[in-house]
Design goal:
With about 220 residues, this protein is an alpha/beta fold. Helices cover about 55% and strands about 15% of the residues.
Length: about 220
């Protein structure tokens, strides 16, 4: 199967270099080039390529915006964002826009060919230099989500909830935290109300699901 490819870059020399490289591959066919975001969308609609290799910064518009429009109108097209910039926001914006690949222009010729092949097979691909950034961003997003899950609780309520998650009774919690049993009962009621839960079992499950221990 021959992959039809459109190359999008606002520098003619870059387009020429990419065409020369990709056209040498027996299973690639560069069907056209584009220099602007608008031209990229128009030519993709007309030619229906399998893969669009596109610079993230273009004249007259963003490659990310062009990617989004391409995916909306030609869902089968696979877009590889090719960029000189290892900027986190651009990376995540490109992924959100539907890009299947994101590689730096410093990539070697063989690696770029492999990237096009992989994306053509329907795989997602990320430049190895950016992988750790993605994992770090995902971990940070998860941490913030969990943190927000307990934003309504006081520090003492979080400590009580941690004890509830361990299956302790009010008396045991009171002993562990040097509180009165009635005080613990009030804390538990407040926790259930704030988290919109109905019983201790739900509270325990909520604490585990949102990794409460990480915040104590």
């Amino acid at each position: 199967m021959t992959l039809k490819i459109i190359i999008v870059d606002d520098h003619e020399v870059v387009r020429l270099g990419l065409r020369t490289l990709l056209d040498h591959h027996p299973n690639f066919s560069v069907v056209d080039e584009a220099a602007t975001a608008k031209e990229a969308v128009q030519k993709t609609l007309l030619l229906r390529p399998d893969v669009v290799v596109m610079d993230i910064r273009l004249l007259g518009g963003s490659g990310i915006d062009a990617c989004r429009k391409i995916i909306e109108q030609v869902p089968d097209a696979k877009v590889i964002m090719l960029t000189s910039y290892a900027e986190d926001e651009m990376l995540f914006d490109a992924i959100s826009a539907g890009a299947c690949g994101y590689v730096l222009k410093q990539i070697g010729s063989d690696d770029l060919i492999q990237a096009v092949e992989a994306v053509g097979r329907g795989e997602a691909l990320l430049d190895p230099a950016l992988t750790q950034r993605v994992f770090a961003r995902v971990r940070e997003a998860a941490r913030k989500e969990h943190e927000e899950s307990f934003a309504s609780l006081t520090d003492q309520e979080m400590r009580v909830l941690a004890q509830v998650a361990e299956g302790k009774t009010n008396r045991e919690i009171a002993h562990a935290l040097f509180l009165g049993e009635g005080t613990v009962r009030n804390y538990v009621s407040s926790i259930l109300k704030k988290l919109n839960l109905t019983n201790r079992a739900e509270a325990a499950a909520y604490a585990v699901e949102h990794s409460l221990k990480e915040f104590l």
